Structures are given as C-alpha cells and as structure tokens.
Amino acid sequence: MARDTADAGPIRVGLVADQTGPLGPAGQADANVVRMVVGDINAKGGLLGRRLELHIEDGATDDAVATAAAETLVTQHRVDVILGGILSSTRQAIKRSAVTAGKTLYIYPEQYEGQESDPLVFCTGPVPAQQVDTLVPWLMQRTGAKTFYLPSADYVWPHVMNARVHEVVTANGGSILGEEYFPLDHADYRGVIERIVASGADAVFNMTVPPGFVPFFEQLHASGFAGQKICTYFDENMLTIVPPAHVEGLYSCLDYYQDVADPFSRRLTAQYDALYAGAPAFTSGFGCSGLYRGLRLWASAVEEAGTLDQAAVVAALDHAHIDEGPGGPATVIPGQHHVRMNMYIAQVQDGRFQVVEELGTVDPQERPVAALTA
C-alpha cells in the first residue's frame, strides 16, 4: 500500500471537550491529555511523516453546543478523526454531527452504559461488563450487602446501567429496594434520602452526576447513612469537588487510579503533572485515560494502515493494541469497537482513593458492530 507523504499537509485531529460548565474541570483535563499526546507524537515525527494539527472546541457541558462544535470540526476544520464527550447524551450529540452527517471517525473515551454500535464509532472507556459485572458481586461478597437503592440522574446512561445493576444484584441473591430519577442539576434530595434510610438499604449505588451529585452526597452524609456507597465513575478529581468526608468509604470501579503502581502509569502522570501543574489531574472517571488510550490506538492504526483512507484505518483500529497505557495495555476486541483493559476497584480511605482489588484484564463483552460500507 502506498503511504501518505508529508506533501499532503498535516493530519487534523478534533476534540470536543467540556471545558466550561459543570464538567469544566474534567473537560480541561481531557484537553490537556490530548495536547500532551499530540505533542509527544509530533516530537517523534508525527504520523506517516506528517504533523498532527489539533483543533479543540468547547462542548460547554451542553449537548446543543457539542453538536455545533462537532459540526465545526467536520465542516470547517475538516478533521480526520474526532474524540471527546463525557456524558452519554453528549456522545449522541457529537455523533449526530460527526458520524451521521459528517461520516467522520469518532472515538468516545468515557466509561459509559455500552451498546454503542456504529462502524465509525470506537469506545475506549469501560462498559457495564467491566464495571457492574465485576464490582457488584465483589462488593456483595466483601461487605455482605444484599439490598440496594439507586438514586440517579435522568438520562440514558443511568437507565441502562441500572438495568444491569438489577440483573447482577438479583443474580447474586440481592434485591433493589428503590430506583429514582432526577434532573442532572437537581439540588434537593431530602425526600429520596429519607426513603433510602427508611428502606434499610445496605448500599446506595449512586448514578447522580455533576452538578447534582454534590448536594446528593452532602445530604446523604448529613443523614447519617451508614451503609455502603458506590459510584463507578468517581475518581480523584471528584474529591476536589465533593468534600472527601462526604464520600469516605465510597467504592468505585475504573480502568485507572493514581494509586496504580505500574511504572508506565506513574511516568505518564508525572509527565502530565509537570506540563500542567495546578490543572485538574489526569484521572479516569471523565475521559482522560480513555482519551490517551483512544488517541494512541488510533495512531497505531494509522501507522499500520499506512494511509488516512477511512476504511483502511477503521480496519486496522478494529484490532489495534498498545502495550502501555494508563492502568496497563489495551486491545480493541475485533468486531466490537470496544476495548479489553485492566480494571480496578478502589475505595476512598482517609480522603484519597486506594486500590483495594486489581481485577486484571476484563473484556467489554459488547455486541458485534456492522461492517463499514462505502
């Protein structure tokens, strides 16, 4: 196959990052990660002898803004690949402009509810088989928790995740005592917390999200609830938003924590901290690890393909692998467009996350994706 040459100009990479709004700190960290990786690739000569040119648009924690941002990246900047999005509704918003209308390759980096299945979409964060199916049985055995309450934000991710929680809890001999949904910015949770306490639930599986999760955990803490607290997406940056005392003992399940001890992860976070001192940290709950993984997997696919031809890149990305990444190596499962990766269970102890269980490599177990057609 003939390789693209430097005469073709730069390779354009687009990112939609929620740099403002309630998810602003997470989006700022996401943008920094992509800047860092693009800088590293360019320092080594780029891809196919061509420099990467990064275009970043603010999604502003607003799906309508994200849709317009993705459209700008496709129609004005004519990017070769788009990354980004945190909330699942934002993924869908970006997809409308980038994939459905723009026919552009899109890499979604966030942990999410799974079930995304499109020839032009690759997902590089954890899914329920890697979070719910691992964490819930472990926690039930470890703590003896049998009954769960599910306070949740009202959009696609919590609804689908909660259905999986129901399945896994009941399969392991437990039960769900309540499941309630609220707007993302809901602030008064006193009613549901009274119901949680009155139910006698052993565990709260939290699916509220920013900004509503701050008052939720404040009010749950004030209630004196003494059961188990679970929130799969919670990471170190969240401990700068929610007072750590409000979530002491909380369990989370992600692909990377700063407590992970492998040498590459330590070097990676040290590099990030040196470049972006004082900025939101490199964490996993809101896309940083998935962005690093996604961009590196895409770069390896471009090198294997020897071209930016979309079909060739998609074919190579369908089995792409990186030996090193945050939390460990990563491999795209052929035909699934999702990633096999290491997973960890961590708990907030004395105000910081400590890894309490290394789960090893876990498959996403997602459904097959249809082949790309011209």
Gyration radius from CA atoms, angstroms? 20 Å
Number of domains: 2
Name given to the CATH architecture of the largest domain: 3-Layer(aba) Sandwich
CATH third-tier fold name of the largest domain: Rossmann fold
Strand elements, count: 14
Helical residue percent? 25-40%
Strand order of the largest sheet: 2-1-3-4-5
Instruction: Give the helix/strand class.
Output: alpha/beta
Span of the ends, CA to CA: 19 Å
Shape: globular
Largest β-sheet summary: 5 strands, parallel
Strand coverage percent: 15-25%
CATH superfamily heading of the largest domain: Response regulator
* Overall mean pLDDT: 96
Number of helices: 10
**CATH level 1 class label of the largest domain:** Alpha Beta
- Contiguous runs where pLDDT drops below 50 for at least 5 residues: none
Could you state the order of secondary-structure elements as H and E?
EHEHEHEEHEHEHEHEEHHHEEEE
What's the SSE blueprint?
Blueprint: E1 11-17, H1 24-43, E2 52-58, H2 63-75, E3 81-84, H3 88-101, E4 105-108, E5 121-123, H4 128-143, E6 147-153, H5 156-171, E7 175-182, H6 190-199, E8 203-205, H7 213-223, E9 228-230, E10 251-254, H8 263-275, H9 288-305, H10 310-317, E11 321-322, E12 330-332, E13 339-349, E14 352-362
Parallel strand pairs: 1-2, 1-3, 3-4, 4-5, 6-7, 6-8, 8-9
Antiparallel strand pairs: 10-13, 11-12, 12-13, 13-14
Helix pairs in contact: 1-9, 2-3, 4-5, 6-7, 9-10
